[in-house]
Each structure stands twice: as C-alpha cells, then as structure tokens.
Design a protein that fits this description.
Elements lengths: L2 E6 L6 H14 L3 E7 L2 E2 L3 E2 L4 H10 L4 E5 L1 H4 L3 H14 L4 E6 L4 H13 L6 H8 L4 H12 L1 H6 L3 H16 L4 E6 L17 H9 L11 H6 L12 H10 L2 H4 L7 H9 L7 H8 L6 H13 L5 H4 L6 E8 H8 L6 E3 L2 H7 L2 H21 L5 H4 L3 E3 L1
Parallel strand pairs: 1-2, 1-6, 2-5, 6-7, 8-9, 8-10
Antiparallel strand pairs: 3-4, 5-8
Length: 394
C-alpha cells in the first residue's frame, strides 16, 4: 500500500483542508493517507482550539485513514523542529509521499530554497551573525542571507505555509528520506471578502469568527464539522492567564533561561513587563519586538506552562520513536497491520509507557502533562489520555 503523509493541525478542519486531501489523493494515487496531527499544543504557540480527539474525528471524516499525534516536544516549536519531528515519524510509519499546502506550488523552487538553506551554516555565517547582532529575529536574518544568493527563494519565506513546506523539504534532504513531496497551492479568501457557502478561509479567520459568535463560519467548513462544533468548548491561551502570571512571578530571569528559546535578554523583558500583565495578548505585544516574535513568546509561555525544559539542540539529536495512534478507519487498520513488526505504534498509553525507553518516556511524560493542562483550560477531566481509546470509524 502506498502511504501519503500529511502534517496538519486541523484546528478546525475546513474546506481548504478537504480540498487539499481530495487533490492529494488525485495527484498521488495514494492507497492510505496518514495524518501527523499536532496534539494539545500547536506550532503557533497556543493550546489547540479544539481537543485532539475532536480534530481526529474531523480528519477521519474528512478523508484521512490514520491519525497519529506529533508529540508536544515537537508540536509547539519552531518550524524547523516541528518539521524534524513530523518527518521523522512519517518516515517511521512508512510514508513514501508527502503532500503539503503552500502559497507556492512550484516544487522545484521550494526545493531549491530548502537546498540553499541546508548549505547555510548557522554557526559560522558572518552575515547571519551581523543581522542577529543588529536585533533581527533568526528567521528574518536567515531570509536576508538567503536573499543575497537567491532572491526568488528568499521571497518564499514571506509566507508561513511556504516556510513550513521548505522545512519539510529540508528534512527530506538532510536525512535522505525516501519520500516524494507534492505541493498543493493553498486556496483562500481575504478576511474582508463576503462569506458564501463553501468558502475557502484560513483556520485563524474561522477561529476568530467562532470567538466572535459569528455563525458565518459554518460556510467555511464541511457540514459534518459545522454540526460537530455547535456546542463544543474551545481553548485559548488566555484561559491560563492566572497560572502563567504566577509562574512568571516566581521565576527569576536566570531560571527562565532553562526553557528553550528564552535568552537572558528575553527573560529580562518578560520580567520587566510583568507589572503590566493583565491580558496575555497585550502582554505579548509589550514583550515582542523585531528580534522576539510574538510566536516565539507564545511558544515560550506554553513551555513555561508545561514546564518543558529540553534545549533545541537536544531535540535535534533525539528524534521521537513512538507513534501515538489517535484514530484510524478500515483502510488504516489494514495498513497498520503491515507495520506492526517495524514500528512502535502506541494505542494504549499504559502499555506504551512500559514499551518505550527512558528518553522517549520523558517525551511521553510531557505529552501526558500537556493533556492534563489542556483539559484544565476547558474544564475537562484529568488523565483523559489514559481512558481514551483511539477513534475508529469503520
């Protein structure tokens, strides 16, 4: 069976995601679609808007055959580490194809950008160090250096989905994965365009509409998603405002530096603005500048919330090796039966905890902690991961 991998958040699943799956099946001729789904906290640096099991249902109803969970250690991270974890696991499960949505569907141009970035030594590049010392973020400094060699490729980095696409392609190159990539051009509308039935809109716009009690969001998602979301609670980083304030109050600038991506200068900014802490987004606006992006600060807050203290360099050396099974259908079940001897697929947390080694158990601990803290934000129950069985749709 030919397996196609898709890395996703589906937060929530919308018409653009359905279009992507349909086009991917059509172009690749895949027999099975494996979705690598972010768990309780996502790459943008927030708790997922909807619970991972809700999003698993959406994925399976929307065309996925298997849904696996990207561990917290990799899901709430920079694009590079996010892609590192996701591609490693898709390779482990035997995916020979990868499909992603991006603003650019020129796969050769995306691959050239990925190749150029692979050649860029982050540690010894004088131009990169110059841009960083001037106060620019790493992402912007990297883009400026790339622009000197390949302006067309550098322009791709102005768009978030292109950035993720290029990071996926980098991982394929760096690790020589036997995975063929396919780029599907994203289709969307501007926020100020009128909402019509079957409209393509971004997940962020849909979340905004839901928060504003705007029922027009139902035109941007499949009917089964609209029905599902009518009464379900959603989660926001703001729900952890008191907990985060207490944590920031207790920590010193030096102890904050134990969290990945928090430098001493950022820690000082976080502490110095604590007296103005009332609303999380307002606080993030105060701390952010051209070096410290809002996404970086949000991810740091999530790491503080989960007490996640693994350095980036360690994450790049220790790849995840367990596959948390969130859901599957009949086709997925058939494919999983062919992978039992070669992969560590965990369908039961208690059993899985005994089967993984010490390093992987530490990552699994973070997953379980993230799950409990996520449920705290929506008033849910503790230890849901111990009780929940993978979603099965015959």
């Amino acid at each position: 069976m030919k397996a196609l991998g898709i890395v996703a958040e589906y937060d929530p699943f919308h018409n653009g995601h359905r279009y992507h799956i349909v086009q991917s099946k059509k172009i690749t001729g895949a027999d099975v679609i494996v979705c690598m789904l972010s768990g309780d906290f996502v790459q943008r640096g927030t708790p997922s808007f909807y619970d991972k099991y809700v999003r698993t249902h959406m994925a399976l109803d929307g065309g996925a055959d298997i849904v696996l969970m990207l561990p917290f250690a990799y899901s709430c991270q920079t694009a590079e580490i996010f892609a590192f974890g996701a591609l490693h696991l898709l390779n482990l499960i035997g995916c020979t194809m990868l499909s992603f949505g991006s603003e650019c569907d020129d796969i050769e141009l995306l691959q050239q950008a990925a190749y150029d970035l692979c050649q860029q030594d982050h540690h010894s590049c004088p131009a990169l160090k110059t841009h960083l010392s001037s106060g620019r973020s790493f992402a912007k400094a990297r883009q400026l250096v790339l622009g000197n060699r390949n302006p067309q490729a550098a322009a791709l980095l102005n768009h978030s989905n292109n950035i993720l696409a290029i990071e996926y392609l980098k991982q394929i190159l760096l690790h020589n994965y036997p995975i063929t990539p396919y780029a599907i051009k994203r289709v969307s509308v501007l926020h100020d365009e009128p909402i019509k039935k079957n409209t393509f809109s971004s997940a962020s716009h849909i979340r905004q509409m839901i928060c504003n009690h705007n029922k027009e969001f139902t035109s941007c998602v499949p009917d089964f998603v609209a029905d599902m979301l009518q009464t379900l609670p959603y989660n926001l980083l703001e729900n952890y405002r008191t907990i985060l304030y207490q944590n920031l109050l207790i920590h010193t600038p030096q102890s904050l530096c134990a969290f990945p991506d928090i430098s001493l200068s950022l820690a000082n900014k976080m502490k110095n603005n604590l007296s103005f802490f009332s609303d999380i987004e307002e606080y993030i606006d105060l701390v952010a500048d051209k070096r410290y992006t809002k996404s970086r600060i949000r991810r740091s807050l999530c790491h503080i919330l989960i007490h996640f203290q693994h350095a980036h360099k360690d994450l790049s050396l220790i790849a995840p090796s367990y596959l948390r099974l969130l859901g599957f259908n009949k086709t997925g079940k058939k494919y999983l039966a062919t992978r039992k001897k070669t992969n560590l697929v965990l369908s039961n947390v208690k059993d899985g905890y005994r089967r993984v080694d010490e390093a992987q158990r530490a990552f699994l601990d973070y997953d379980l902690r993230a799950s409990d803290i996520y449920q705290l934000g929506i008033g849910g129950q503790k230890a849901t991961d111990y009780r929940a069985a993978p979603v099965y749709i015959p």
